[in-house]
Amino acid sequence: MDGRERSCNGERVHETVREAYGKIASGGGSCCGAKGCCGSPAPTELAGRLGYGADELAGLPDGANLGLSCGNPAALAALREGEVVLDLGSGAGFDVFIAARRVGARGRVIGVDMTAEMLAKARRNAAAFRRQTGLDNVEFRLGEIEHLPVADSSVDVVLSNCVINLSPDKPQVWREIARALKRGGRVAVSDLALLKPLPEAVKASVEALVGCVAGAVLAGETAAMARQAGLVDVRLESKPEAIEAMSHWNDPQYAAIAEGLPAGAKLCDYVTSLYISARKP
Questions:
Q1: d(CA 35, CA 17)
Q2: pLDDT at position 132 over 90
Q3: Which of 13, 228, 253, 280 has its CA 20 to 30 A from that of 43?
Q4: Is the Cβ–Cβ distance between 95 and 75 less than 8 Å?
Q5: Alpha-carbon gap, residue 214 to 5, rounded angstroms
Q6: What string of DSSP letters covers 226-265?
Q7: Kind plus residue range of the DSSP H or E element containing 129
Q8: In this predicted model, what pLDDT tens digit does every residue of 147-184 receive, in sequence order?
Q9: CA separation (Å) from 113 to 11, 44, 142, 146, 232?
Q10: CA-CA-CA-CA dihedral for 24, 25, 27, 31, to nearest 10
């Protein structure tokens, strides 16, 4: 495959993701909603299962939590007051607002998302967040995570929650993370990783792509990409309970993925939720 073909394939992935997540932002593309449906847990219940505390979930703007998480990267990051934080694929602002309360008025949190509908929703939520908290320390920027709209060595912490798997060029994402971080800066990512290769039927599924599954790579590949980007102290922690919870959802997206698995197989046989931490030397 030459460079032009890779570029075309990458743009097709971006367009698929933009369309799907644009529908989710508009309330028309996901089974999950403020109260949950189709047998799926409500986003607040799901977040609790994934490690978010009641204090983190209290007082968030309505609609910030769209139930798209696979872990709690802000907890992994151990954020400190005054830090500058960058959230990759920030969606409606869920992790941005949680991080913003932790870094306080002297800190700042920047969310980056490539979906215009998500960005508009996040900015509306930001206005509500300012009214509720008195904090004016968040902003949302339109951009792709392969080409982050931030200056070199400008952030203390990079967060991402179940987003890097959607990228068609993951090594470039990790290079961008390293570029954006200050010396000594930290990475805290929650994402999906493969325990073994997926069946071809699942890899070809649009539902699997939008659910982060088709784009997942083996955990060792993720660690290698982070190190090749120049990051050190790369640590991986598997959280299989998150995938086990997904297996009990009745969301049509996950039902479609399950149809592509061999008889008797479960999603958690192939995929795990992975916490990834690292730092820039």
A1: 24
A2: yes
A3: 13
A4: no
A5: 19
A6: HHHTT-EEEEEEEEHHHHHHHHT---HHHHHHHHTSPTT-
A7: helix 116-133
A8: 999 999 999 999 999 889 888 899 999 999 999 999 99
A9: 15, 22, 5, 11, 26
A10: 30
* Mean pLDDT on 230-255: 74
**Is 214's pLDDT higher than 70?**
no
pTM over 0.70, yes/no: yes
Closest alpha carbon to 181 in 203, 152, 159, 205: 152
What is the rounded distance in angstroms from the CA atom of residue 8 to the CA atom of residue 136?
Answer: 39
The rounded distance, in Å, linking the Cα atoms of 165 and 208 is: 11
What is the number of alpha carbons within 13 Å of residue 136 lying toward its C-beta? 0
The one-letter amino acid at 224 = A
Domain boundaries, the chain: 13-279
Sheet containing strand 181-194, strands side by side = 138-142, 108-113, 84-88, 155-161, 181-194, 271-279, 232-239
Q: Which of 25, 21, 5, 30 is nearest to 168 (CA)?
A: 5
Which residue reads 């996901």 in tokens? 30
Residues 139/140/142/147 CA torsion (nearest 10 deg): 70
Q: For tokens 């997904």, what's the residue?
A: 246
Q: Which two tokens stand for residue 127?
A: 């206005």
**What's the count of helices (H) and strands (E) in the chain, helices before strands?**
12, 7
pLDDT band at residue 241 under the 50/70/90 scheme: confident
Q: What share of the chain is helix, strand, coil (3-state, %, to 5)?
A: 40, 20, 40
pLDDT digits (tens, 9 = 90+) for 19-67: 766 677 677 444 333 333 333 446 666 666 666 667 777 778 877 766 6
**Which one-letter amino acid corresponds to residue 100?**
A
